Amino acid sequence: MSAIRVPVVEKIFSANDRMAVQNRQLLTNNKVLAINLMASPGAGKTSFILETIKQLSNQFKIGVIEGDTAPVTIDADKIISAGMPAVQINTGGNCHLDAVMMSDGLAQLPMDKLDLVIVENVGNLICPAAWDLGTHFNLLIASVPEGDDKPYKYPNIYRGLEILIINKVDLQPYVEFKMDYFRKGVEMLNPGLATFPVSCKTGEGIDAWIVWLIEKIKVFKNS
Q1: pTM, full prediction
Q2: Which CATH architecture is the domain 8-221 placed in?
Q3: Is the pLDDT of residue 4 over 90?
């Protein structure tokens, strides 16, 4: 009789997915909308979160979970300084957050007082795409300086998105970035994806993103 083999990776993903379901149920029960924010290093994740907090702070309470490969609290400290609760999760060198880490982060946030949770995932375009955290939306920040070929080189992360932010559009005159080529690549992978070209530096496009997000929060809380 031959041994029965159960792939280790499959078991890990299965356990993660079960925890993700629990996380999503916890968030939904508390009427807290959650966004998994992914991007390359330097794309402007923290700046985008801070700008979103600035625009929404008079209407909603926002909690932030910061994922990092090193035990530093630089980004979490910025969020706290902006007046919102934040939790720093050290992945121990792993290239992504998982649902267990997400659960630990949620346990440290005042869930009964929040309207929105933003999870700043570890900065890369490969690992985070494969792990369900239990959020309601997946958001990617792509920045102009990264180049216009990223949808073609990293298709998996674009396929699983509900929101795409194209950041640093103020740099287009100085960088070789063909917006039409970039958006064509995105459309092939994820037709009709909600996309917002923005600049956290100049404020361009931020209003459209905020209007969209406010509507999603209100619909979610009233569902």
Answers
A1: 0.92
A2: 3-Layer(aba) Sandwich (3.40)
A3: no
